[in-house]
Amino acid sequence: MLTRDVVLDRAILDLIDNSVDAAHKLGDLSTKRIEVDISNDQFSIKDNCGGIDKDTAKEYAFRLGRSKDSPESPSSVGQFGVGMKRALFKMGKSFEVRSLTNEESFVVDVDVDTWLEEADEWEFKLQDIERNDPTVGTYITVNDLYEGVSEQFGLETFVRSVIDDIGKAHFRALGEGLSISVNQQEVSSSSIEIIKTDQLSPIGKEIVVDDVSVKIIAGVSTRELHNAGWYVVCNGRLIAEADTSSVTGWNVDGVRRYHPDFAYFKGLVELESEDASKLPWTTTKTGIDVDNSIYRRVLSEMKPVMREVMSFLSERAKEDKDFRDEKITERPLNDAIEEGGFCDTYDIEEFSTSFQRPDSTKSINPDPLTTIQYKMPASKVDLVKSSLGVSSNRELGVETFQYYLVDGE
Description:
The protein is of the alpha+beta class and 409 residues long. The chain has helices spanning 8-26, 54-61, 84-91, 112-118, 147-153, 156-169, 171-175, 293-324, 332-338, 378-388, 393-403, and strands at 33-38, 43-47, 92-100, 105-111, 127-128, 137-145, 179-182, 185-186, 193-195, 203-209, 212-220, 229-234, 237-243, 265-272, 342-344. The chain folds into 3 domains: 8-186, 2-Layer Sandwich (Heat Shock Protein 90), CATH 3.30.565; 193-347, Ribosomal Protein S5, domain 2 (2-Layer Sandwich); 371-409, no CATH class. The strands form 3 sheets. An 8-stranded mixed beta sheet has the order 5-4-3-6-2-1-7-8. α10 (378-388) packs across α11 (393-403).
C-alpha cells in the first residue's frame, strides 16, 4: 500500500527535494552539493546541507503519518510528494540513513523484512554514532534493490531521464549555484529567456493572493514549437513546463488554441509561500491543481497577459506572409524578434504592465504581386513547356506573360 502508486523517478526527485529544502535553509547555495549515484545494485544520495536533527527525525522524517505538531518547513518543496520513507521502501529491502549536524549525529539502519516481522508499532531505531566526518549533511544508501528497480537503475536511458528531470525541476536552485550530480555527471541549469529590448519588452504583473506572492511575466523568445508556453514554478520547483493546454488558459475564455504561430511565446508564473500547502501543485509535484482557489485567481490574471503577446504574434505571422508576397516593404515586428536581446526571466526586475512592441509597418508596396490562374489541357501545356525549355507550370506562366510585355513594362 505504501509503495504501489510510487513512480521510481518521482521517488528520486522527492529525495532531492528534501536536500534542496535543507540547502535553502542554510543559504548560499553556491557552497551546497547533492550527489546521487544510481546503479543496478545500489542507490545513494548524499549532501552537505546541514543534516536532520533528532527532533525532526522523530516527529517527521521517520514518522509514518504527519503529526499536527510536526515542525514547519517554511517555503519548502519537500512537504508534498512521495516522501523519504515511501521512496526508500519503493527501492529495496535494506536502507540506511546517516545524518550529521553540528550538534548531533545518528543512523537509522533498516532491514525491511526484519522490520516488518518485528514492527508491531512500526517504529524505527535511531542510533547515535561518533562523528568521523566534519561535513554536516545526510547520507542515504539503499541496497538489496527489488528486481524491477534494479533493472531500471541499470538502464542508461533511465539515468539520462532522471538527470533531465532534475535539471528542469530545480533549474532555479541550480541557477543560483547549487551543485547536483548523478553518477558523477553534473546536472546543468537551464533558463527561461525572453527578449527584452527598447523595441520589444515583456509584460508582467505581481500580486499577492492569500499570503502567496505571485509573479507573472510573458513575452517573446526564440521559436520553439515544443518549448513554448507557460512555465509554472512553486517555491522554486518547476511543476509545469511549456504548458499549452487549457490548464494554463489556452483555448478558453476567448484565448486562442495553441498554434505554431505562437511558438515564440514564453511565460513564467512563479508562486512563493511559506505555507507550501497553499500552492497549486499536485501531491506528486508534477502538475497544477486546477481546483486550487489561489490558482484560479492567478489564471484570471494570466489570460489578459497572454492575449497581448498572442495578438502581437498573430500580427507577426501576417506581416511575414505579406512581406514574402511583396505586399509590404518593411517587417518591423519580425526584425524586432530577429535582433534578439535575450534576458533570463529571473534577471528581469522591472517590467511593464503592458506589452512593449513596435508598430506594424505602413510601408505598402505600391505595386504588389498578384496571382494569375488558368487551366489548359495537360498535353498542350507540356508541349508549350518543351518549346520554351521550362519544366514547371510557374515558369511557363512567367514566360508567356513576359512575351506580351514590351521592355518589361
